[in-house]
Amino acid sequence: MFRAETWFRAQRYLSATVQRNSCWRNPKGCLADRVAVVTGSTSGIGLAVARRLAQDGAHVVVSSRKQQNVDRTVAMLQGEGLSVSGTVCHVGKAEDRERLVAKALEHCGAVDFLVCTAGVNPLVGSTLESSEQVWDKILDINVKSPALLLSLLLPHMEKRGSGVVILVSSISAYTPIVDLGVYNISKTALLGLTRTLALELSPKHIRVNCLVPGMINTEFSKAFQGYEDSAWDQLKKTNKIQRIGQPEDCAGIASFLCSPEASYITGQNIVVAGYSPNL
Ligand code: NAP
């Protein structure tokens, strides 16, 4: 039979455990002494994630295709007092992925977090009229490269005995956007990649989750915000919170997913869109 006293005792125990475990009490930050690799991190969502992980105590390796963007971002974040380094990495190029891993290992010889933000959409047009080159480019960058990069980093996460991977999909995985057919498909594939990798890597204590952003205010989304009756117009009607998202809306969730507070969460696709596609 239920007894109020037993219930209150359980609540007191849980509350004490949460307080004892709260990593946010660490003055060096919840992610102190951790190393994070963030792809596509010189602008938009990737930049916000890199900054937030570094603010929360991690050393962050930033990267993107262009040297000047990497140099500018490293200088800017170091100027904010954050621990960052950087290197060029076009995620579709094997030699660049290897260079990124080598750069990350320079810090302390291991890696804790991988956030795969880099993504492309080179075509606005119909799925069946997309050329083979367009299919290859989108699937290579958006779907294959996170898995290939992770396969290089995995032994260095295993050295730590745990790790966290965050993929970045899109709301278009749930509600496809007209004229972004192959991109929609690539982002849907990431939902499956998340669940499959979570299953495969949980015995190694590596958690894999996925951010699923709606319309977020970045260079990438500006292309859609300009159109009449565009994807953005459609999304404005669906969006319950009635504002465009900011990159920081994604960054806080990425930090939480990396933190020990999320140690029981894996295989989840987390929508950050101002609405739920399930409602
Ligand atoms: P963004 O502001 O345009 O930033 C893209 C970043 O990725 C830049 O740092 C860019 O720098 C880098 N990049 C581009 N291609 C790359 C490649 N092949 N290899 C490595 N780095 C590359 O874009 P964003 O809006 O933050 O988008 C980030 C991710 O969120 C993408 O995967 C996108 O699909 C997803 N997303 C965005 C939205 C949105 O509304 N913004 C919504 C849903 C999903 P360089 O030019 O120097 O390479």
User: Helix proportion of residues, in percent?
Assistant: 40-55%
Superfamily at the CATH H level? NAD(P)-binding Rossmann-like Domain
Rough outline:
globular
Distance between the termini: 37 Å
Q: In DSSP terms, counting alpha (H) and pi (I) runs of 4 or more, how many helices?
A: 9
CATH domain class: Alpha Beta
Sheet-strand content, in percent, reads 5-15%
SSE ordering = HEHEHEHEHEHEHHHE
Question: What order do the strands of the largest sheet run in, or round the barrel if closed?
Answer: 3-2-1-4-5-6-7
Structural class: alpha/beta
CATH topology: Rossmann fold
The radius of gyration computed from the alpha-carbon positions, rounded to a whole number of angstroms, is 20 Å
CATH architecture: 3-Layer(aba) Sandwich
User: Which hetero compounds are present in the coordinates?
Assistant: NADP nicotinamide-adenine-dinucleotide phosphate
Low-confidence stretches: none
Give the number of DSSP strands: 7
Give a description of the structure.
The chain is of the alpha/beta class. The protein has nine helices and seven strands, in the order αβαβαβαβαβαβαααβ. It has helices at residues 4-21, 44-55, 67-79, 94-108, 132-158, 181-201, 219-225, 231-238, 247-258, and strands spanning 35-39, 59-64, 84-88, 113-116, 163-168, 206-213, 269-272. Strand 5, helix 6 (181-201) and strand 6 (206-213) form a beta-alpha-beta unit. Helix 4 runs parallel beside helix 5 (132-158) and helix 5 (132-158) packs parallel to helix 6 (181-201). Bound molecules: NADP nicotinamide-adenine-dinucleotide phosphate. NADP nicotinamide-adenine-dinucleotide phosphate is lined by residues 39-46, 64-66, 69, 89-92, 117-120, 141, 168, 170, 213, 215-216, 218-221.
